[in-house]
Amino acid sequence: MSRRNKWVLALMLLLGIGIMIFSMRDIKFSILVDDFVHINFWWFGVAVLCMLVYLALEGVIVKVFISDRIEGFTFKDAIRIPMVEQLFNGITPFSSGGQPAQLIALMQTGVDAGKASSVLLMKFVVYQSMIVINFLFALVVGFHSIQDKLHALAWLVVFGFTIHLAVIIGLLMVMFWHAFTKKMVKVVLTPMRWVMKAERFSRMEDNINGKIDSFYAESVRISGQWKLMLRVFGITFIQLMFYYLIPYFIMLALGYTTANIVMVTSLHILIVMVISLFPIPGGSGGAEYSFEMIFRSYISSNSKLVLAMILWRLLTYYLGMLAGLVAMVMRPDKVTEKDNLPND
């Protein structure tokens, strides 16, 4: 990690502590401790397990994609990728640092940069597609509930969905309308030519076109492997379900055993969509506010509501960053390219 990243990590930890302290401003610390001591640690353990399985399944997805082309790519290398992603997603606005960090982590194992970029883009397409599909289900089930609780902020959910859908459409255009997409990109980039130096603009344009060409080549290769893609889609769906179920098991741990699993899961999907719109790394502030507002009607005790929020953030945000720090000190294995495998 660079010095700047270390400073950002420290800042996010301090910000998180500050937000949690602010959330407890009207609650006696002794009551919060008593609530924590009396939670059902078996159910909380299930919530922790859900987050660990979420990370492990993403490692499985990485291994499925990479092992299709590379020899000697171990599961240790595969699980290291999502752990690194969690760390850099957590310290960059809009989770923008996750993709570059994964690319560097894959290159450290010996995977060619072009192939690594293509694989990560395919993984991103699958992941975004499943987010959109899950969101459509959650929108039908839980939007009326979130609209009653967040009012105008509910439309942030719809806005977030629109952004995710636009990303998917753009990537699908690269896959199926390659030449047309490159022409559109050239038109969109034209205004940048007026405000940038010619050399810098040329480098940026070549870089974007290179990524488009690389992704298109990978999509052509993968498109004929429908069994592999179905497998990855299935694993990604299960992976996201484990993640979305975390608040439900936290509620069970706090004694709310009558919680509706479908509704709670749907509301969590909508919360995740809202968080993606906050520019602060990890959606700090917005995430905590959204959780408290949405689950206030389900968790009647203020102290337990704050405790639920804290436990949720510890598992879904800070545990991932801790895993990323562990991944940063893990020594990657080296791999050998399968030159005899067909690339088309």
UniProtKB/TrEMBL annotation:
Superkingdom as given in the UniProt entry: Bacteria
GO biological process terms on file: lipid metabolic process; response to antibiotic
Primary localization: membrane
Catalyzed chemical reaction(s): L-lysyl-tRNA(Lys) + a 1,2-diacyl-sn-glycero-3-phospho-(1'-sn-glycerol) = a 1,2-diacyl-sn-glycero-3-phospho-1'-(3'-O-L-lysyl)-sn-glycerol + tRNA(Lys)
One Gene Ontology MF term: phosphatidylglycerol lysyltransferase activity
A GO cellular-component term linked to this record: plasma membrane
Pfam families tied to this protein: LPG_synthase_TM
InterPro entries (UniProt xref): L-PG_synthase/AglD
Transmembrane segments: 7-25, 41-66, 124-146, 152-177, 228-255, 261-284, 305-330
Enzyme Commission designation: 2.3.2.3
Coiled coil: none
Bilayer disposition of the protein: Multi-pass membrane protein
Location within or outside the cell: Cell membrane
Key words, A-Z: Antibiotic resistance, Cell membrane, Lipid metabolism, Membrane, Transferase, Transmembrane, Transmembrane helix
Biological role stated in the UniProt entry: Catalyzes the transfer of a lysyl group from L-lysyl-tRNA(Lys) to membrane-bound phosphatidylglycerol (PG), which produces lysylphosphatidylglycerol (LPG), a major component of the bacterial membrane with a positive net charge. LPG synthesis contributes to bacterial virulence as it is involved in the resistance mechanism against cationic antimicrobial peptides (CAMP) produces by the host's immune system (defensins, cathelicidins) and by the competing microorganisms.
The family this protein is said to belong to: Belongs to the LPG synthase family.
Protein name as annotated: Phosphatidylglycerol lysyltransferase
Gene behind the chain: mprF
